[in-house]
From TrEMBL:
GO BP field: fatty acid elongation, monounsaturated fatty acid; fatty acid elongation, polyunsaturated fatty acid; fatty acid elongation, saturated fatty acid; sphingolipid biosynthetic process; very long-chain fatty acid biosynthetic process
Name this protein carries in UniProt: Elongation of very long chain fatty acids protein
Swiss-Prot/TrEMBL catalytic activity: a very-long-chain acyl-CoA + malonyl-CoA + H(+) = a very-long-chain 3-oxoacyl-CoA + CO2 + CoA
Organism per entry: Daphnia galeata
A GO molecular-function descriptor: fatty acid elongase activity
Family label: Belongs to the ELO family.
Length: 289
């Protein structure tokens, strides 16, 4: 009993100390002030798309939604393009380094504008939930894959951590590239929603898939730098235990969270596909050791 109490108390104390390291510039902002908000929204999304949505549509006819999709995709094109442009203007076009870029925690105008861009990106991840809602209403259940739902439900939580602890610096690469990918992706969706006469212009779908895969590879490669180079990112996280400063993945809660986020994709999607046409490996010797 005492051991359980001490363990729980330690977790509470460490969580409180970690929370004290948050970036207080975003305190009080809508949907981001506390971790409960994005968690509840993402859980509600899962409940809606896995249980409520399919039940509601079970005995209903398919909705066309052509006009809605035209408006929605057009909005997404402009919104993601706007985020991409202003993020690049504040970072890569403003002297940011791709190798090692610390977070600017000051009240510098560019730093504050970058946080606002990050907040817009965060809001866009909740707007993306409509992708799944529209699939359900159109009964495109083949599009609602594990990867689709997992990606939509987990990305807002990742972005929340970034905004609350490391809003800028090295972590800005992912939202920048992701906004570009979404800009191109929703342009494709817009053309597809325009009708059969535009099908001949959609020959580049396979290249869009390649572009999305390149995104995952480059974002992962960019993030892996922190395992191998000494980088002052994020400096504010190096306060809980200075003895572990410089240890791989110990500088921030972001890195282990990203690894945990990536593991279901590896085990559920990538792994089975890689082994689909391969014989089983014995591994007896490896497992014995």
């Amino acid at each position: 009993m005492n051991f359980t109490y001490r363990t729980v108390q330690t977790l509470i104390d460490q969580s409180s100390r970690l929370w004290d390291l948050r970036d207080r510039r975003t305190d009080g902002w809508l949907l981001i002030d506390s971790p409960q908000t994005p968690v509840l929204i993402c859980l509600s999304y899962l409940f809606a798309v896995k249980i409520i949505g399919p039940k509601l549509m079970q005995n209903r006819p398919t909705y066309e939604l052509r006009s809605v999709l035209l408006v929605y995709n057009t909005f997404q094109i402009f919104f993601n393009g706007w985020i991409f442009y202003h993020t690049c203007r504040l970072t890569w076009f403003n002297g940011y380094s791709f190798i090692c870029q610390p977070v600017d925690y000051s009240d510098n105008e560019d730093a504050l504008q970058l946080i606002k861009m990050g907040y817009c990106f965060y809001i866009s991840k909740f707007i993306d939930f409509l992708d799944t809602i529209f699939f359900i209403m159109r009964k495109k259940n083949n599009q609602i894959t594990f990867l689709h739902v997992y990606h939509h439900a987990s990305i807002p939580l990742t972005v929340w951590i970034v905004l609350r602890f490391v809003p800028g610096g090295q972590s800005i690469f992912m939202p920048t590239f992701n906004s570009l990918v979404h800009f191109v992706m929703y342009f494709y969706y817009l053309m597809a929603a325009m009708g059969p006469q535009f099908q001949k212009y959609l020959w580049w779908k396979k290249y869009l898939t390649v572009f999305q895969m390149v995104q995952f590879f480059l974002v992962g490669l960019h993030g892996m730098q922190l395992f191998f180079i000494q980088c002052d990112f994020p400096s504010s996280q190096k306060k809980l235990n200075k003895r572990t400063d410089g240890w791989p993945s110990m500088g921030s809660p972001l890195m282990p969270f990203l690894l945990c986020q990536a593991s279901p994709i590896l085990f559920k999607v990538i792994g089975p596909k890689l082994m689909q046409n391969r014989p089983p490996y014995e591994l007896r010797g490896a497992l014995a050791h």
